[in-house]
Write a structure and sequence with these properties.
With 411 residues, the chain is an alpha+beta fold. The protein is built from nine helices and six strands, in the order αβααββααβααββαα.
Amino acid sequence: MKTSILLILLIALPGAPCARAATNQLESLTLEQALEMAERRQPQLAEARALVEAAAGRAQQAGAFPNPEAIVGAQQVPFSSDSSNQREYVTGIAQPIPLGARLGKAREAEMLEREVRVRGLEVTRRDLRKHVHSAFATALYQEKAFETQSHIARSVEKVAATTKARMDAGDAVPHDLARIEIEFARAKVEVQRSQSLREQAMLGLAAAIGDSRLSVKSLAASLDTTFEIPTLESLAASLSAQPEFALADANVRASNARIDLAKAERIPDVKVEALYHRLEATKENTFDIGLSIPLPLFNRNQGKLREARAEVAAAEARSRRTENELNLRLRESYAQLTSALAASRALQTEILPRAETVLKSAESRYAAGDTSLADVLPVRRDWAAIQLSHLESLRDVMQAWAQVSGYLKSP
């Protein structure tokens, strides 16, 4: 029985890492899946959520009433036993009492700091979506580029076979075969290079999702995606709904709350003492009550109040800077999107069809023996360059859309 259990463990243990590896492999990953996984796996989001929880804890603590103090003591304790018994024992409690609504102001300030963290989380989430979207576009482009380079290599291989057949028939010279074989070797090098870039882009996508151990094998999407582009005016009108604006506004309100707190802290706390007093000399029990009030002669919290006012000015300046930066980024992203769309449409509707026609005509004439290899190779190189330029334009469109879509109310 023990031998059977040991064999089962020996069989199962090597398979455990394989099982984990299999779960980390992603096939046909979509953009929506990548965004959803980033929401759960990205450490940056987990950090931002933890900071929100920490701010909530500080707000809870700031509103807590101070604890009472227990007092136990002895007075007039003699140094020698010959002295008269004048000892007095004291026991009781002391309770600090905050004045000037300090606790309420402190809790309000910390609650606004929590709101700042919440708004910061929204900004982080939006920026993360942009980053994942951009990384997905790059990975998708590299995947399509690898497929295109492979297709180019196969087509060059066909031309090489045609050249060899013509040479065997006496219609071509060995020099032509050597040239096309060089072209085929270059095409294979480009395929290997494209495959390496594809693997690097997949690693970049996994890192953007938040787990570099993920192995993204393939993507399920198309670079040539049709979507409706909103007008620049409509996007500019919705800028005020961006999380950066909410974050800047929360910072200003939190800084103003710090001013109110600094003013409230200028009023010192009062300490009330209630004591039981035992007089050993007369065997009497007495009751003492005291009131302790700090005198704000040297520390009137002026430095903290000055700091809080300066922080308000800085927060208001950051708010104005945020507005300027958002407007600039929006217009730059929109210009990049419209330019990339124009280039992509021109390549797709005007250049690509003509390049296909020219290539087919040149290869047909070469196969028929009407032209030489020197006439075909430049046409093929131009066709391959146009194919890759089209893919690059589609990638630029997708990356620009990743930036512009962040300014929509519901990206």
